[in-house]
Design goal:
Chain lengths: ~550, ~400
């Protein structure tokens, strides 16, 4: 059908919203409550345009035959601005946070406060995620993401009129409800009303303490995303610069969580084979993702027996730093401070879990590391590429791909095949479990036995997979869409293509690795030889495994 | 006392004529198409306020492909000053239920809901008995009627919010399209009709002398004889005032809360067009009268308070705009207002009207716009009072 867009006649699709039509024709319309992959709510009323002289929300309106659409006249601009003024009584723009709402102030021409702020809410301070409703503009994206993408339903709107606010159920704090701490709400908050519980101050204090030996360990997905905080394009691999930046910040040693991932694979693949050989509980489900662990404990606690007992990679490495490394380097473990650099807010919670004796003292998200580096005046772009400290710094490509959905599965199968058959997989790259499809599956033959596997990312997909779990032997779940590259601690992104680019960077790092299988990692082999004996040994169980408990939702 | 007065006045009202299951019988003999043609010919329009042709609504719903359809009777009479549905439910519920069954028959629905206002809970036991007895008499295969009690939210009188509430969600409005008629309860075609409309359906089908121009007026305010009255459209204001019997000279009237406030003109004929001329909306013809002792700003303030409490909070202009309007009116009444505040009030009210999501939001600024337009002297009173002190 034909419509007129700002006076220009164009061909429009009657099934597409005005917003999509405008954007396809190179005209941007500001949005706040709109989320590309969710059903539009049309709450915020910022995406207003004029259709045949009447104001309509472009996200929820379809064009009419012959309609005249105007996106930028005074009527539209004034209405958009007034809605912004009503929503945000005090325009606060912190440059370092690069809030989405700041771009919209500019677009609607809002400079100063016009109405008095009437919000008086108590902040909600959890161990991992904190919320400040005084900053909230009720766009509802966190609510929608929590429910529709994550399938968690921890938060919703309550009360009416100007008292309407986002809250966990029964007005409790996030820390006391069935929230999986995935942090997807943070990524979707345009005003920074939700954020991670920061540990920067504690880390700076530790770095300043001459008594302490401060060790950083860097998760696989950080290297594919950190650059974005310093103006680099999405998907830039910054492994060497990350290590250099951490050293400039004052960390004594910088280790690679990929090594922990390799350890995880050795343990997990052995556990899988053990279960397959001894009629253990099937399917076995991975436990690298603390968000998923919480989700299981809240909603699927009947599956506790199906969960692998392996700790997540950084918890394994944290333990090894305080035992193996401490002994080798001759440092008192009490003086070692382990700081994990993670793409994840749930990891902050994980290191406070009572079920495991943790070696990790603090967890910083990718965003926090970026902030720390800026506070320490590190000129990230001009840093040289540096190597991880060799003591615990050699890792394989199998460890790197932990950062993407399907990666744990792929790495585990590479090693499981070798451990079971003594031979390497013919085809190293298991492409059927790569990519952004919600649920992916495949099968492999181990010693004449068919092993079916599947992986899901995003809580809602995980729920869907749990409905059909009995079809499989081995399941990988990542709570965040895209896996750790899309984690709740990662740089906030607006381009939906970002996740794909980060994932590509991760697989690129695997392709260029010299070692691509966990069982080839010399340090892993050395650790087993010198300390643990073999996978699933008593010592390995003590240091590298954990257990789970049923958690009450109310 | 009240019941007695109501009975006295309601004698001979068309809306209280009972159809005694004959309307349904006639509808079933006529067939679905014929009933729709008949209703079209009789000119039945929705009585909830939007005056949408009933037959057209039913036809849209019937002709939308679906495996299931629903009928909803909107008995969430929340508009302040409106109490006509209560009268019907108390005195002629059987006819209303019969109207629902005709709707179910014509549209092809099996499940019907009566969404009863939370405050009308006391009417429920008797209504349930009547539902059961009409259903038993009707012998319609598999047709069920469920009474759902509202939880007291004004916004749930709005069709989309009402459907959300029936489905067990928070009562918040949804944008249209899709219209409930084609995509309502659980995504299925759903016909939502007002209590009065459904009662009229049965009467229009059965009675040849049914008069489409009769409307129920709920009168209240500074008058001696408040109550529900039946008048034909176009009736002179003076006739209405005669039965309402004010004690003092009437100054203003408000159509519920949402319709706006306008001066009382004895020579005016009550028609949608005449009301529209004064920038007001007739809605369900509930008229709250105010005499000379009243300052319209005070009324506007009360209405603003009502909306600040009842807005569902979903869309920005209504959620944030209503409280700003209230605060400005409070400031003016406290004698702290300045001329510019009136401009801001008008700007906000127009803005909400233009950009809010649902009917509630779009009309919640009417009282401000109309009171400033028609009664500037009342605002001046407060502005001058402030200037003196």
């Amino acid at each position: 059908m034909k419509i007129k867009l700002n006076g220009k006649e164009i061909e429009a699709d009657s099934a597409k919203s005005l917003l999509d039509t405008c954007r396809e024709n190179g005209i941007n319309v500001p949005t706040l409550c709109y989320h590309a992959s969710l059903f539009p709510e049309a709450r915020c009323r910022v995406c207003l345009v004029e259709m045949n002289g009447k104001l309509v929300t472009s996200c929820s309106t379809k064009p009419r035959e012959g309609a005249s659409i105007i996106t930028n006249n005074e009527h539209v601009m004034k209405a958009r601005r007034l809605n912004m003024e009503l929503m945000v009584p005090e325009p606060a723009c912190r440059k370092e946070d690069d809030l989405e709402v700041c771009g919209i102030y500019e677009e609607v021409g809002m400079r100063s406060a016009r109405f008095a702020n009437i919000k008086e809410y108590k902040p909600d301070l959890g161990a991992a995620v904190i919320r400040d409703n005084n900053k909230c503009i009720n766009c509802g994206r966190c609510v929608k993401v929590c429910a529709d993408i994550q399938g968690v339903y921890a938060i919703d709107f309550a009360s009416r009129a100007h008292n309407e606010h986002v809250t966990p159920y029964f007005e409790k704090n996030l820390a006391d409800v069935a929230c999986i701490r995935c942090g997807q709400c943070i990524l979707n908050c345009p005003v920074g009303a939700i954020s991670e519980r920061s540990h920067i101050d504690e880390v700076i204090a530790a770095l300043d303490d001459p008594e302490k030996h401060v060790v950083a360990q860097v998760a696989p997905s950080i290297r594919a995303a950190l650059g974005e905080l310093f103006g680099m394009p999405a998907g830039t691999l910054v492994t060497g610069k990350t290590v250099a930046a951490l050293r400039r910040c004052g960390f004594d040693k910088v280790f690679d969580v990929d090594l922990g991932a390799d350890m995880t694979i050795m343990e997990e693949a052995s556990e899988l084979l053990h279960r397959l050989g001894n009629g253990g509980k099937m399917p076995m489900i991975t436990t690298c993702c603390p968000g998923w662990i919480l989700m299981m404990e809240f909603f699927y606690h009947d599956l506790i027996g199906n969960m692998s007992t392996c700790r997540s990679p950084h918890e394994m490495l944290g333990m090894l730093i305080k035992t193996y490394y401490a002994k080798k380097a001759g440092i008192d473990p009490k003086k070692i401070v382990v700081v994990s650099i993670m793409p994840c807010t749930a990891k902050k919670f994980e290191s406070t879990r009572e079920e495991l004796e943790t070696g990790v003292d603090y967890v910083l998200t990718t965003r926090e590391l970026g902030r720390l580096a800026k506070m320490k005046k590190v000129d990230f772009a001009s840093l040289p590429d540096e190597e991880f400290d060799p003591a615990l710094g050699i890792a394989t490509g199998a460890g790197v791909i932990f950062g993407a959905t399907g990666g744990v599965m792929e790495a585990a199968l590479r090693t499981a095949h070798f451990l079971a058959t003594g031979k390497e997989l013919e085809k190293l790259e298991i492409t059927e479990i790569r990519g952004m499809k919600g649920i992916k599956e495949g099968k492999i033959v181990l010693n004449g036995k068919e092993v079916r596997f599947a992986c899901a990312h995003g809580g809602a997909n995980a729920r869907q997979l749990m409905e059909q779990k009995d079809k499989y032997h081995f399941i990988e779940i990542m709570a965040c869409p895209g896996g750790c590259v899309g984690g709740g601690g990662q740089p906030i992104y607006r381009d939906p293509d970002t996740l794909r680019k980060r994932t590509e960077a991760i697989y690129g790092a695997d392709r260029t690795s010299k070692l691509r299988r966990s069982h080839e990692n010399p340090i892993v082999l050395q650790i087993y030889k010198e300390m643990l004996g073999a996978p699933l040994s008593e010592e390995a169980e003590r240091l590298l495994h954990t257990h789970y408990v049923k958690k009450d939702r109310f | 006392m009240l019941r007695k007065r109501n009975t006295r006045r309601s004698e001979g009202m068309q809306i209280l004529r009972q159809t005694n299951m004959e309307a349904l019988e006639k509808a079933r003999t006529l067939g679905s198409d014929e009933v729709l043609t008949l209703l079209e010919k009789k000119g039945l329009e929705g009585r909830g306020g939007a005056a949408y042709p009933t037959a057209k609504k039913w036809r849209n719903s019937r002709d939308t492909p679906a495996d299931e359809r629903f009928i909803v009777c909107n008995a969430d009479e929340g508009e302040p000053g409106t109490f006509k549905d209560k009268l019907i439910i108390r005195h002629n519920a059987e006819t209303m239920i019969e109207g629902m069954l005709i709707a179910a028959y014509v549209v092809g629905a099996k499940k019907c809901f009566i969404y009863l206002r939370g405050e009308y809970e006391y009417l429920r036991p008797r209504l349930q008995e009547q539902v059961d007895s009409v259903l038993a008499k009707a012998k319609m295969d598999g047709v069920e009627i469920e009474i759902v009690r509202g939880a007291g939210a004004y916004v749930c009188g709005e069709a989309t919010a009402l459907l959300q509430s029936i489905q067990g969600f928070r009562g918040t409005s949804m944008y249209k399209p899709p219209n409930p008629t084609t995509c309502g309860l659980w995504g299925k075609p759903t016909v939502i009709n007002n209590v009065e409309t459904l009662t009229c359906v049965a009467q229009a089908v059965l009675f040849d002398d049914w008069n489409p121009s009769l409307r129920l007026l709920s009168l209240s305010g500074n008058i001696k004889n408040p109550g529900v009255y039946e008048f034909p459209l176009g009736v002179k204001m003076s006739t209405v005032i005669d039965v309402a019997r004010p004690e003092k000279k009437l100054k203003a009237m408000s159509f519920g809360c949402f319709g706006g406030i306008m001066p009382v003109d004895e020579n005016m004929a009550i028609t949608p067009e005449a009301i529209c001329m004064e920038q007001c909306q007739h809605g369900a013809y509930s008229i709250i009268f105010m005499d000379e002792t009243v300052n319209v700003v005070d009324i506007s303030y009360s209405i603003a308070k009502f909306y600040t409490y009842e807005s569902c909070g979903k869309c920005t202009p209504c959620r944030e705009g209503t409280i700003r309007i209230l605060n400005l009116l409070k400031k003016i009444r406290n004698g702290k207002g300045v001329k510019k505040d009136l401009q801001t009030l008008q700007e906000l009210a127009t803005h909400i009207q233009e950009t809010a999501l649902c009917g509630l939001g779009q009309s919640c600024g009417n009282h401000v716009l109309t009171s400033i337009k028609h009664f500037p002297q009342d605002y001046d009173y407060y502005l001058k009072k402030g200037a003196k002190t």
